[in-house]
Records
---
Amino acid sequence: MDAFEGIAGIRIADSDGVKVGQKSIAIGNPFSLESTVTAGIISAVEQFTPSIGRVRVPMLQTDAAINPGNSGGPLLNSQGQLIGVNTSIVNPEGRSSAGLGFAVPSNPLVEALANLELGGLSDIRDTRPTFGARVQTLGALPKGIRKALDLPDEGVLIIDVLPGSPADKAGIRGSTVVETLGSFDFETGGDIITAVNGEALNSAEQLNLLVSYESAAGEELRLDALRDGETITISVTLEMIP
């Protein structure tokens, strides 16, 4: 007799509908304590943490206690529906839990289910297009640094480009100069993307969302960029990079 006979699968919610402040429930085996349940709220959505792959994932942030052993367990809403899969914590002072837990939203999971059901492995890049460049948010640099390097206050600086990537095929240029200010080195000279399809671009996270989560492979994006002090337009055709 099948051990799972008569057991219904968990219902999967649309993670795009998750709101800050709604209840969240985490289930897992923290420190090998099986079937532990903790509860809290959704603290933030589309929150970026240190990457777990080549494509950064906009995570759900929760203050439900999550510890080692919770990873892979479900994050539920108040109706018991899956809204995410517990993945990581931010633990800057060495504490087991600092109220900063993160879960991969359910929608990317749904996209990968077909491959997972066949026993395969899945990475977010299997289903999402990528840009293929390492970038720097200019607004994150101190104003004095931007002034010293003659950089604008807003936009995204291209640091380097992955060979054969959509960015490379479109002719986007990476940094060519390393400037030293004090004891820090800064890569400059690359294209500065200021807008995508007419929408002002303010951060690397915004570019990631536009490319990997709001666009599809084969779609063409129109980029406004600064190159050698002049404004140019670059067309990039997105694709998935194996």
---
Amino acid sequence: MPTKTLVPYSGGVDSTYILWKLLHETDDEVTAMYLGEEHYHSQIYADKSPIQYQRSLILAEELRKIRDFKYIKYNVKNTDISEQINNKALIIIQYAAPFINNGTYDRIAAGGSYEDKHQKVVEHLEYTPLYYAAHNLFNKLCNRGEYWEPLVHGDWHPRYNRSHALLELPTHIIEMTTGCSSPQIDVISDEFVECGKCYKCNMKRKYTELLSQGMTPDEITDWRETKAYEYGGGKFMLTPQEWIYFETGIGITKTKEQVMSDFAKTGHFNLKGLPDVGIWKGILNPKSV
């Protein structure tokens, strides 16, 4: 019997790559789930989500040419969000847990990537904040199944970055992906338009440039990590978002000194405002848990 896999699907490069690989290389019974974020997190999601969803439907139809799969949309509700469940990966786990437990799905194939989570700013991968929280939550809510992050664990590539997907995916599929943080619809052509300024657009453009220069994805990983350490003053590695802003000079909101000051205060990036209770307890100092 084939494995029943739920793919949280945004239409971005990473989730499209996961869906494409599963359809090509497995006999999994695949369900792609789009998380409707119109009422979640911030105005940027409210603006982005309907546009991205419509684009993802077109992309899903293209991927169905490989083989058929289910496509569903789940709209986030206010009751889905709490102090402990305040990230879309955690909302997805919370939603899927009953279906994992009753056998509707066997696993969640999540789209986190090595470059996003294995930042070398913590000693072990399991202590990277969202990784730690997501696996903790899955283990608490699910009595069977698997929370699988193939782009983190090296199932397909030991050190995945988005250049792997850009290299392997067909060109027309890449052109249809919707990773932009601030997409718009051209009112004349009715076409999806990327902003060209957010970190996702910058990273996609930079990786495409490096691939065109003949660099391999592994060489790109080495180059990016070296640069990320350099921009971190040789003391720590910047996150991909911070690195690409410093690399391109587009979208920078903090000076290097401010970034280093933030790191010195917390020991980690992007953790401001996280509670130290429930699923998040111990993230700032996981060895104490």
---
Amino acid sequence: MLMSTVRSGTLVLAKIKRLSCLHSRPAINHLSTNADYKPIKSVLVANRGEIAIRVFRACTELGIRSVAVYSEQDKMQIHRQKADESYLVGKGLDPVAAYLDIPGIIKIAKANHIDAIHPGYGFLSERSDFSAACAEAGIQFIGPKAEVMARMGDKVAARKSAIEAGLPVIPGTDHALSSPQEAYKFCKENGVPVMLKAAYGGGGRGMRVVKTLEEVEEQFHRAQSEALTAFGNGEIFIERFVPNPRHIEVQIMADKAGNTIHF
């Protein structure tokens, strides 16, 4: 559910061409236009590498000005060359922290009259405070609203939302863990294997499988440290580990007029 919600926002530009065909799809009975429409003329991608390049390519096809940000260490990276414009962000910060610099990114966007910001995935893509900062600055955030992000970007909150909706969830904690001792207590009461997971973020970072009680403390600190480095937040929680899962994911896209479609 989290992945469908967040990625539906971050994939908007790449799939925006399909919007012109939505009225002909059987999944939509009525196409609503009940929303203020403001054309996007420029997009800043708060990301790097192939993620950013794909969005730049979509911008070029749509006649939208593309803008890159780059850390000091990434000044020679290709994503900077592929954008129409590029600006240094997070001066003096390490490569990851630079792309988590919300005030710096917003400052660049406002100074260069950017209409919208695309977060890509990873980094700030699941941070509700980033979505809120964009809205406060009068910049369109290509993704969910802050209140939706707050419920889905935080996986602990996402679990609570799923439980409230009556959906089955994997056994786990309904809150962020405060210490390895708390993780140990859960494992002792509920058994192993379990997975320690970053509450904010995804992409496999901040995740550690615990197979024995002796591993709990070490893996707790590793997961916490990696989550803090990758997402700027070290909160983690526990879920029962499923050794051979089947992954089923549905991409969903919606606009602010209430039109929704699945791919």
